[in-house]
Amino acid sequence: MHNHMLVTKLIPWDLIENSQNCLPVEMKIHLTTTIIRLKSFDENKMDVSRKWVENSLIRIEACLDKTWEILNSGYWQSVPIDYRYCYSLCAILKAVLLEFQYDDDDDDDDDDDDVVKNTTLLKTIVQQIDKGILLGAPLPDMPSLLPTIAEKLNKHCASEPLESSIFKEFTIDPKNLLDFTLPGFTEIAYHNEPSMELFYKEIFLPKIPALLKGCIKHWKALERWQDLNYLSKVAGNRTVPIEIGSRYTNEDWTQQLVSFSEFLQKHILEKDNGVGYLAQHQLFEQVPELKDDFTIPDYCSFTDNNEVETPDINAWFGPSGTVSPLHFDPKNNFLCQVFGYKRVILYHPKDSPNLYPYGTRLLNNTAQVDPLNPNDEKWPDFIKAKGLVGYLKPGEMLYIPPKWWHHVTSLTPSFSISFWWD
Known about the structure:
Elements: H1 6-10, H2 13-18, H3 25-43, H4 50-71, H5 81-105, H6 111-135, H7 145-154, H8 174-179, E1 186-187, E2 190-192, H9 196-204, E3 210-213, H10 221-224, H11 228-235, E4 239-244, E5 254-259, H12 260-269, E6 276-281, H13 283-286, E7 312-318, E8 323-327, E9 332-339, E10 342-347, H14 352-355, E11 387-392, E12 397-400, E13 405-410, E14 414-421
Parallel strand pairs: 1-11, 2-3
Antiparallel strand pairs: 3-12, 4-5, 4-6, 6-7, 7-14, 8-13, 9-12, 9-14, 10-11, 10-13
Helix pairs in contact: 3-4, 3-5, 4-5, 5-6, 6-7
């Protein structure tokens, strides 16, 4: 075996062996022999027969296909966790086998072919590991193994530079935002770098929405992420889920897995590929390198239940025109704007009856009313609702209290980070 076996070097085989206890019985039967033999090959630095690798890949692919079917039947929340563990473990085993297969083929190639094949292999493996991250579940004894493998491999396969890394961030004049108010709405109150005490007493405790200025001015992301080639260099080869369509309540809304660089090129830099939105995605768990560019706001240390926990952190990145329909979330929420402009409309939880929530279990936190285009005949009580409006600008953050309804529109290409906590 050659010394470029990057994935294999990262595998803790004893923990992989133990992780079989988390798997569904019918999958464990197929995977046990493969795990034992790969562990033996690695520990004893033995050569592996090409035929065995090919047969093992067929077996792993069959397990991935079967697990994929189960993951895609019914509600995601109701999928047994052991099948998600299985998908993660199969992604790791497939990555190792692909590396063994490449290593076996490697002797036949000249140096130039070798570089090209090696880069292609690494990108294929990163793509497979990302599917494990997105569709699987972190393995109990080694929760960070998949992101670690992807991060280390990603450093060895540079993504292609984007055709253009410059985009017009301000498709509207920001001065017009300050002068434009929607009729019938009250403006959300602004606070400039409020002290911890002021935030707690005047905003957090009474649960009042507030736009906060100057609180994230130290974030490196404010400058770095405007250079799309920087983002592409860090995450271009990574596979991410994007929503196709301007809002999730539309009938033509769908989701796709694409490379991050393809998303940047097609949906941020180019205008004619439809609306693609990287929405509510835990990008920073998948690509931890980006965590170095921002910090969790100190205000998140205030809680409603006396237990300080790390917030759920999500990325929201898309072109002008993305819309989050009127909905509420059960937790405290900071929506922090890295670049671009968003309009946010808010309603108090008491206004819920006037907003006509959907009756279905999946959408009962979403209103049928569009506050920008209400149908008075269909929703006659909406006129009683009292809305707030604010414009979220680069470097600002919006506090949205639990169960406050919010409707968010991107007025320009926009990158936001949300922090949800109890």
